[in-house]
Design brief:
8 helices, single chain
């Protein structure tokens, strides 16, 4: 807003002077005490650390539950380096630049842990993996025709389902 004195003098507004390049540049520096970590907690906000230790000396963090869920959903679709960049950007946005960043080794070990989990899908490949685990643990060796017949009675399986179950579970492992 211009004052009445500036209006009478015909002086250009600050906006017009800035556009023309005659006005000095506006300060955009943020005072050091104005920077805060923004956390979703009931605690009051704390100022960010000015002199954080170098990344090599900071302790590494474990992945949070939301990070693990993101890794589980995306690790098959993008490279590990790209996924690590996304995770570290999220970490910096949540905890500030002073937070210890995740490492590529951490991400690779988490992906390996996810790959070792038992299959939960309903497709044929998952069933074969589940049978391999059961065979390796000795559970499959304990299942015989009587167990399958008892299972069929309890769960009211039709003859086609019983036959399919026997074909899958009672066939010997191919060498």
């Amino acid at each position: 807003m211009r004052t009445a004195k500036q209006e009478k003098a015909g002086a250009p507004s600050l906006f017009a002077a800035t556009l023309a390049g005659a006005a000095p540049a506006l300060r955009r520096e943020v005072p050091p005490d104005a920077r805060h970590l923004h956390l979703l907690k009931d605690e009051p906000m704390k100022p960010a650390a000015k002199n954080s230790p170098p990344a090599a000396t900071r302790a590494t963090r474990e992945f949070t539950a939301s990070d693990k869920a993101l890794i589980r959903k995306l690790y098959g679709y993008m490279s590990a380096a790209q996924l690590l960049g996304i995770l570290n950007e999220r970490l910096a946005a949540d905890l500030g630049e002073a937070a210890a960043a995740y490492t590529l080794d951490q991400l690779r070990s988490e992906i390996a842990a996810l790959s070792r989990q038992e299959p939960t899908g309903a497709d044929w490949a998952s069933l074969r993996r589940l049978l391999a685990v059961a065979r390796r643990d000795g559970v499959l060796g304990q299942i015989d025709e009587q167990v399958i017949d008892d299972f069929a009675v309890v769960f009211s399986l039709n003859p086609k389902q019983v036959l399919a179950l026997k074909d899958i579970l009672l066939t010997k492992e191919e060498a």
